[in-house]
Design goal:
Phosphatidylinositol Transfer Protein Sec14p, CRAL/TRIO_N_dom, CRAL-TRIO domain-containing protein, CRAL-TRIO_dom_sf, PI/PC_transfer
Length: 426
């Protein structure tokens, strides 16, 4: 039994095993980085404060004011004549929460981000990145397991020991020698950071929209954050030092241009010297981010993760039931497979489970776009997303898109000759 229930008191004899060491800290707040209190908060609706459909009257007024300021300055277009707004409310609220609903502060960060996205052509970067280059970078940063916690927030895992000096040198060499996409040949941004931008875009434009469409306790509020399990077991002091710029880049980028996209970080496998290392690592993060980081002892890992997510949603090596390891593609559960199963690939020889298409994809709710470039040529296909069956006025059920259409589009995206022309996009 995990902390999800023990945070409010033991439920049975099994619960008492976990509560014995926890009773003295149950009254502490999540800001003190206590996993029990944090789980207690997540079990209710307190974590939704400041999110869409969970705003106070004052916050609603601040959102309206923020939209007006952004529109007047030319950074936002409201919905008009059937055309959607340039930015949804959930995105605007991320910037407001990051600045504690200070409209001027939120606008300055939003303006800087919009100009940064324009100057670096971020959307085009993601849509045209070389597929293999994208995959090389995906293996160097947190990876989505294909699962979610109890609130519907996607679970990422980052196993740091794989980023040793040899692998880092090989990665740096490949990045330095690879040619950027045609759309970014004139960019002054280092290729290593261009690739990192693409990974954040995948979270923002595929993983989070997909998770927002899946069943969860509060479907009225879009999913805008991720939870990360960071495994630092087997990492030495020298390796931490060598990785400092690699990890700083990700932290600075997230804080500046992807605010409020982190729910929690669970650090596990911390070596004995980690308290010393943590003293300088936490300076890379702003105080709000630091309050979301939990350093777990070995005995805390399983009960803490269970307090946030079902055992089927986190890997076996951390006490869960998920047969997923670092480097594996996303392993979708059944609800996610119903919407995005068209991205799965047949299991390879000797493999027991399906693969997953590589490279950039976009989730639009009613369709998935497969993008990127392969051998210098654009890869383009559209896969329909099955919609819940609706009933026509005469009582007849609306037909869902067929699996054959999904197969056709995916074959086209992977270079196979299409068997029909219903779904591929030129």
């Amino acid at each position: 039994m995990g902390l999800w229930k023990t945070a409010t008191g033991p439920q049975d004899d099994t619960d008492s095993v976990h509560t014995a060491d926890q009773k003295s800290i149950l009254e502490r707040t999540p800001s003190q980085n206590d996993p029990v209190a944090s789980a207690n908060q997540a079990a209710g609706t307190a974590w939704l404060a400041g999110h869409l459909h969970h705003l106070t009257p004052e916050q609603e007024a601040k959102l309206a004011e923020f939209k007006t300021v952004c529109e007047q300055k030319g950074y936002y277009k409201p919905e008009k004549d059937g055309q959607p707004a340039s930015h949804d409310d959930a995105t605007l609220l991320r910037f407001l929460r990051a600045r504690k609903f200070d409209v001027n502060g939120a606008f300055n960060q939003f303006k800087d981000t919009e100009e940064w996205r324009k100057n670096n052509n971020i959307e085009s970067l993601y849509e045209n990145i070389d597929v293999e280059s994208y995959e090389e970078s995906r293996r160097m940063y947190p990876q989505w397991t294909g699962r979610r916690d109890r609130r519907g927030i996607p679970v990422y895992v980052f196993v740091v020991k794989h980023l040793n000096s040899k692998n880092m040198a090989e990665y740096t060499s490949k990045v330095s020698s690879s040619a950027p996409a045609d759309t970014h040949k004139s960019s002054k941004v280092p290729p290593r950071l261009l690739r990192l931008f693409a990974l954040y875009e995948n979270m923002l434009r595929f993983v989070l929209p997909l998770c927002s469409k899946l069943p969860r306790p509060n479907p009225e509020t879009p999913i805008v954050t991720s939870t990360n399990i960071v495994d630092i077991s087997g990492v030495g002091l020298r390796q931490f030092w060598n990785l400092r710029s690699h990890m700083q880049d990700a932290s600075v980028l997230a804080t500046a241009h992807y605010p409020e996209t982190l729910d929690r970080i669970f650090i596990i496998g911390a070596p004995s010297f980690f308290p010393t290392v943590w003293g300088w690592i936490k300076r890379w993060f702003d105080p709000v981010t630091v309050s979301k980081i939990f350093i777990l002892s070995d005995k805390e890992v399983k009960p803490t993760l269970e307090s946030f997510m079902d055992p089927s949603s986190f890997p076996k090596q951390y006490g869960g039931e998920l047969d997923w390891e670092w480097g594996d593609p996303p392993l979708l559960d059944e609800p996610a497979r119903e919407l995005a199963g068209g991205l799965e690939l047949p299991a390879g020889e000797g493999e027991k489970r399906p693969g997953f298409i590589k490279g950039p994809v976009l989730f639009h709710g009613d369709k998935i776009e497969v993008l990127g470039t392969e051998n210098g040529k654009p890869r383009r296909a559209t896969i329909p997303v099955p919609q819940p069956e609706e009933t026509k006025a005469n009582g007849e059920a609306v037909t869902k898109p067929s699996d054959e259409n999904e197969k056709t589009a995916l074959e086209t995206a992977n270079g196979a000759a299409p068997v029909s022309n219903e779904t591929p996009v030129a």
